[in-house]
Amino acid sequence: MIMVRMEKFAVLLLIALAAVPSLDGQIKALPVAPGALIATVSPQPGNWTEPSVAVNPLRPNQVVVVFQFTAQASYSDDGGLSWHLAEAVSPPQFRMSGDVSTVFDNKGNVVLGFIAFDKLGTFNYWGHGATRNGIFIKRSLDGGHTWEPDLRAVSAQPSAPNVPFEDKPYFVADTSKSPYAGNLYVGWTRWTLTDSRMMFSRSTDDGVSWSDPMEISPVRGLPRDDNGALEGFDGAVAPDGTLYAVWALNDHIVFTSSRDGGKTFSSPTDIVATAPTMFAVEGMDRANGFPQIAADARNGSIYVTWSDYRHGDLDVFCIVSANRGRTWSSPVRVNDDPLHNGADQFFQWLAVDPVSGAVNVAFYDRRQDPQNRTQIVVLARSVDAGKTFANYAWTTTPFNPEGAFMGDYIGLAAWGNRVYGAWAVKPGAEAKTIVQAGVADFEQAH
């Protein structure tokens, strides 16, 4: 068992961030997120990426971070002041497990979802030459301390010629008071030799069993993982139990909803035109801007974030719907650095605080490097329903990701004006990464 204390980081992070020169030579200070704490929650540097973080709605001091490769988990029982690395998490039945996400259900149990496989297919063409693979879950009934040994299958593909490959699942829990409270949902991309498909499954028995996978998009995408595919599923549950979902297709974000607990879905619609959301940046072959969606637990407003390069460099954007997705606001730029300054912001993740309604967005940010190579983690926060965002430095030591695999996303969660994030960092010259967990406390700033 590994425990990481965070108090020693607080002193460093509460020191005001030094002013940094912008590209036009002007000096601009980015304030440090209030109460910022940072800790490493992964083992020694390795290939640790793609974290997800969740807060227990029944015990908000209980927080879990999961990450890959292979699937791992760390937990905190004191609101992120200390972290423990859990044991016996990754499934021994498979050679690899990853693409993790985690949620707490309405009983306070943790669900860890992931893909597992023995061999990938051809580079960016996963359906070709892949072995047995699938989407699975494990559960923890004690806040992440221990994990059930049972591996429960959402969709399992046996080894066979030209086997489909299940990829990028993201799990959602209904913790509302609706008739569908307790339901678990997951959407993902299924790769075949000829196309990509948006798949969906649900569980009504705490993840013990799952419905047969179904396609929720009548449109299929291209069969490669480098553009033109259906990718980036994310979902959110409204106070009345409506499930909303988004994903990326070419230069649009697609939106759909289910009002019957995931049995059926509305016809998907394009809600916003984007520049392509798959791209590369200096030092990273993948810096995707797949969308996220979140619903305000107080009034049902829906938020969607993504990143694209409509302004040349990469920016993060947010749109809002106050009428259940019928109409949407114009995109608001979340990062507040000067427009067209050549600095990239990407790998955003979204969390709407279910207690306060504050909109939180975390992302990698390169504004302080005139060469656009090194990055920190920035937390943006809106308290006016997504109209404006204040930006804060969540980390203060820039790192250069060149040579390391950084994954496809970072993670974010919020509760009671306390925000929890998780992200990968390359701490040194070696092409190895660690996963850090961050805490920001806006309650103490009031």
Key structural traits:
four-stranded antiparallel sheet, 43% strand, 1 helix, 446 residues, five-stranded antiparallel sheet, single chain
Write the CATH fold name.
Neuraminidase
Mean pLDDT: 93
CATH architecture identity = 6 Propeller
Helix content: under 10%
Overall domain count: 1
Structural class: mainly beta
Note down, in words, how this protein is organized:
The chain has 446 residues and is mainly beta. The protein has a single domain (2-441), classed as 6 Propeller (Neuraminidase), CATH 2.120.10.10. The protein has one helix spanning 7-13; strands at residues 2-5, 20-21, 27-28, 37-40, 49-55, 63-68, 72-76, 82-85, 96-104, 110-117, 133-140, 152-157, 165-173, 184-191, 196-203, 214-215, 230-237, 243-249, 252-258, 269-273, 292-295, 302-311, 313-321, 332-333, 345-352, 359-365, 376-382, 390-393, 411-415, 418-425, 434-441. The strands form eight sheets. Strands 1-8-7-6-5 form a five-stranded antiparallel β-sheet, with no helix packed on it. A four-stranded antiparallel β-sheet has the order 4-31-30-29. It has a four-stranded antiparallel β-sheet with strand order 9-10-11-12, with no helix packed on it. The relative contact order is 0.14.
Question: Helix and strand layout, with pairings?
Answer:
Blueprint: E1 2-5, H1 7-13, E2 20-21, E3 27-28, E4 37-40, E5 49-55, E6 63-68, E7 72-76, E8 82-85, E9 96-104, E10 110-117, E11 133-140, E12 152-157, E13 165-173, E14 184-191, E15 196-203, E16 214-215, E17 230-237, E18 243-249, E19 252-258, E20 269-273, E21 292-295, E22 302-311, E23 313-321, E24 332-333, E25 345-352, E26 359-365, E27 376-382, E28 390-393, E29 411-415, E30 418-425, E31 434-441
Antiparallel strand pairs: 1-8, 2-3, 4-31, 5-6, 6-7, 7-8, 9-10, 10-11, 11-12, 13-14, 14-15, 15-16, 17-18, 18-19, 19-20, 21-22, 22-23, 23-24, 25-26, 26-27, 27-28, 29-30, 30-31
